[in-house]
Amino acid sequence: MGQERKMLWSGRFAQGAADETLAFTSSLAVDRRLARYDILGSLAHARMLARQGVIAPEDGERIVDGLKKLYAQAESGALAIDPKLEDIHSNVELLLTSMIEDAGARLHTGRSRNDQVATDLRMWQRDAVLETMEAIYELEHVLMERASDNVEVIMPGFTHVQHAQPISLAHHLMAHFQRLARDAERFAQCYRRTNVSPLGSAALAGTTFNIDRLYTADMLAFDAPCANSLDGVSDRDFVAEYLFAASLCAVHLSSMCEELVYWSSPEFGFVDIDDAHSTGSSIMPQKKNPDVAELTRGRAGAAIGDLVNMLCTLKSLPLSYNRDLQEDKAALFACHDRTVSCLRLAAAMVAAMRFDKERMLAATRDGFLNATDLADYLVTKGLPFRRAHEAVGAAVRYCIEQGKRLEELTLDELRSFSELVEEDVFSVLPVERCVLRRMSVGGTSPNVIPMQFSQGMSALRKQSEMFQNERARLRSAYQRLLDRGTPNGKSLV
Fold first, then answer.
1. Theoretical Cys-Cys bridge with 306: which of 93, 203, 221, 335, CB 3.0 to 4.6 Å?
2. What range defines the domain where residue 405 resides?
3. Residue 142 domain flag
4. Long-range contacts of the stretch 438-443 (C-beta < 8 A, 24+)
């Protein structure tokens, strides 16, 4: 016998809400993505209720059997979602009660949609974090591969978008790697704070029923239940934390893509972005535009907007649950989808692009990138650095006036700025020597860059182990939840 399609809260009201109100308050267009998690959470809750004797074993059996069928439908895309209902939770409950009648109506015992949605969202975000970490890993791996192939390639290093000092291209690429490694660490920390179970917090104050929150937390692979039921239903710090980590990652991607946009211009000519990641012009036949890089740069703004959106939603909310929190999912889901797609396209773009090594080296000939090395040379001869800096500054000014480079000056010309200059100065000034001599830890010398690779590989292994192990742990927990036999009172383990 089918059930009337009505809201879960309809008993209090003499008449239904206006259609406009229902449309305005509906979250189904967004939260339908939570279907599988809602069913899994309900499975854990139902098994716990039967185990604790809160509901009869036979009711528990029927609920579990019905939920398993709904889970199979959700996984195959065949779940019959009713757009007239306000959220995915109402849909699942209605489908269940339509299937097993009164037994299904017992499922919500000791539970509220407040703790239900918080649990669903944390389960969804766990998978989202792991997927994001994997996408970061892919880009990191590509950057390290490209860096390892370009240790000996010399290019200008920049500050203020001005030539500063010569560096290895590998060193530059590994700087972007380091940013992403920190992003991965932030997401790993976010995962730990996400992995706390609100289930059993009920509406806000817990429940009078003899529930076992440790049991449901364990079945759903959470590390622990939340410590406070008010906090359990209202906490969205984990959402804000994901959005922050994603927005900072987007900023890092934007910075890298900004470089690729101007590096691919004729004025720089450092890189050729593959045709697969470029587009043309509708009017200028010669154009090849770095659109993947530009759109990745542009979408960083949306990520920052999602974070600000969430923080503004949270900033004035009193405890505990408020309907404002319904807005969390649209920002979170959109930010996750956007972040993962940008990371994956960036990885493909970096893997396929081609560097013009000769153009990079040629660019180091202008801009006096070896000036600091000349100052350091004078320091080794006994001149205080500040006086050496002044002397080399004067030499640079002289070179500009004469149209020369520092390495083109004669010994006599160099000695006119400091009598400490000797013949050995000419072994210091070539840009290749400038790069080679920077042997400090974390420096650009090809002799020390392998240390960065070693540290990077260690970080990659740690990241890979984390997201692979956690994925396996979640899969195993969910499979055990689905495979467990019929609830049978206290014997269920």
1. 335
2. 371-429
3. yes
4. 443/171
E strand or H helix that includes residue 124: helix 113-148
Q: Residue 167 pairs with which residues in a beta bridge?
A: 155
**Backbone dihedral region for residue 95 (phi beyond 0: left; psi -120 to 50: alpha; all else: beta):** alpha
d(CA 78, CA 95): 12
Residues 482, 485, 490, 493, Cα dihedral to 10°: -60
- One domain for residues 201 and 145: yes
- The answer, yes or no, to whether the previous bond of 281 is cis (omega within 30 of 0) is no
Residue 388 φ/ψ region, left for φ over 0, alpha for ψ in the -120 to 50 degree band, beta for the rest:
alpha
Q: Which residues pair with 490 in a beta bridge?
A: 488
DSSP summary character for residue 271: E
Residues 154 and 361: their CA atoms lie apart, in Å, by: 5
> In this structure, are residues 455 and 23 in contact, taking their beta carbons and an 8 Å threshold?
no
Kindly report whether the global pTM for this prediction surpasses the value 0.85: yes
CA atoms within 13 A on the CB side of 54: 19
Nearest CA among 493, 492, 477 for reference residue 37: 477
42 and 66 share a domain? Answer: yes
CATH number, position 377: 1.10.40.30
Pairing status of strand 154-159 against strand 162-168: antiparallel
Q: Per DSSP, which regions of 332-404 are E strands? A: 354-355
Rounded distance, CA 65 to CA 300, Å? 45
Catalytic residue numbers? 160, 281
Dist. CA 139–CA 145, nearest whole Å:
10
- Contacting residues for 24 by C-beta, under 8 A, at least 6 apart: none
Cβ atoms 263, 363 nearer than 8 A: no
- Looking at 395, 413, 429, the residue that finishes a domain is 429
Q: Is residue 153 part of a domain?
A: yes
DSSP reduced 3-state for 239: helix
The first and second tokens of residue 282, run together, are 């509708």
Question: Which residue shows structure tokens 């042997």?
Answer: 439
What's the number of domains the chain is made of? 3
Encode pLDDT of 393-444 as tens digits.
999 999 999 999 999 999 999 999 999 999 999 999 999 999 999 999 999 9
Q: Which two tokens stand for residue 188?
A: 């790993």
Are the beta carbons of 171 and 446 closer than 8 angstroms?
no
Structure confidence by residue, pLDDT tens digits, 59-100: 999 999 999 999 999 999 999 999 999 999 999 999 999 999
Q: Report helix, strand and coil shares of the chain as percent, to nearest 5.
A: 65, 5, 30
CA 147 – CA 142 distance, rounded (Å) = 8
- Beta bridge partners, 168, equal 154
